[in-house]
Amino acid sequence: MSYRLPGDKSKALLDQGLPSLRDGLSYQRRAASSAEKGYAAPAQMIVGRAEGDFVWDVDDNRYIDLQNGWATNPLGNCHPEIIEAVHQAHLQYGFQWEHPLRIPAAEKIASLMPGGALPRFSFEVSGTEAAESAIHLALCHTGRRYMISFTSCFHGEGLGTKMVSAYDSQKNIYMEAWSGGVLKAPYPYSDNIPAGMTQDQYVEYCLWYLETHLTEYVVPAENIAGIIVEPGLAEGGNWIPTTEFIQGIRRICDKYDWVMIVDEVLTGLGRTGTMWSIDQYDVVPDILVVGKNLSGGIEPCAGVAARNDILGDNPRASGGSTFAGTPAGCAAALKTIEIFERDNILAHAAMLGSLASSRMSTWEQRYDIVAQVRTHGLLMGVAFRDPEGVSEDYYFARSVRDAMLRRGVWAICDNEPQVRMYPALNMAPDVLSKALDLMEESIDQVQREGVSIGDYPPMPSGNVGF
Ligand SMILES: Cc1ncc(COP(=O)(O)O)c(C=O)c1O
């Protein structure tokens, strides 16, 4: 089976969006860039409807959904119980700020926090706002001026989060000079290891950079408020750092009295097989940022959980914009967590993670174009490379993602040489197995036939996944 993509209705919508959407031109630009190099136009589709583990495009082609609303639908698409809870909240409250649901929702979220140590919660609308709020809290709590963030990491699309993110320098073009209070440190991502260093040596170097280089040569430790870190790279490539690195950050934060912020917007609420990715490091952060899955895939809900002394007594730190913690958002969060507990979703996610990891375990050996298989719970991905070193690695990833889509599996390949996958945490095991079979067929095809898509370089202005 191979879909002809974009289908007629998707194509008509893409054309209709050309003059009005912010990234309306992105598909045509990519198609033109691919054609210039003699390759096909990339596959593209627009979702017509969604249910459970699947989406259908407007041309009625069905796909197994590994894109998952950019990892926001932990219980699959359009979960009926969450829709019902959200609907009831809409009927009862419409939109109000002073509604009662935010109290049990905050209590419930706090009860899930690592070590029970982050009892206070501040609602925000999006992961972006939550990450910005966390940084503001840390600055106001410490009365210090600098924040450390990491290369390869992504924290959002607000002005502040663009400043601390560093997974693509193009994203910060024209704003570089605004990030005066941000110290960017290397993240020991396996894709960036300097020549000749082992992974362990690179971790040691990254920790030395934080503990010694920054504090002795750049900014005194007593003027640094804290560190914001992803305990599992998400947008940067679905890659998990070592225990030494994350525990090292905790040790350095304790030594200098820095606030440790973990951004679990994508890794949180079960994505890596435990409630929080940080749970796997035996580390308790001072602030934890949550979003995406908390919405149940239905209604935005995000926020910041923090130590009592950081959030409870911090009159300078404001947060929570108009639509933060709406009745419907809180209802979605409460229902999502209820289903997590009732249906033992974490155990199911961990089981699916093991299934994926054993199914994909031979791919690095079997396919020259596979650089690294990444599975950590359901934070899944495959990094690609050009075995001949002639073409951009990115083309291989794009070609595999393209071949998958034409076979009916929807995954992400944005601006990186990886295909990333975020199955729902309650996906049926046979559906996940089928998706991985089709992915392997796609890898095999690209390995044999070579690159088919050349839509590079990507522009930072829009998601290539549409
Ligand atoms: C780790 C991380 N932090 C923050 C964000 C921003 O969240 P949102 O898109 O909900 O604003 C994202 C989004 O992908 C993310 O992956």
Automatic annotation (TrEMBL):
Transmembrane segments: none annotated. PROSITE patterns: AA_TRANSFER_CLASS_3 (PS00600). CDD domains: OAT_like. Keywords: Aminotransferase, Pyridoxal phosphate, Transferase. PANTHER family: AMINOTRANSFERASE CLASS III, LEUCINE_METHIONINE RACEMASE. Belongs to the class-III pyridoxal-phosphate-dependent aminotransferase family. This is Aminotransferase class III-fold pyridoxal phosphate-dependent enzyme. It comes from Candidatus Seongchinamella marina.
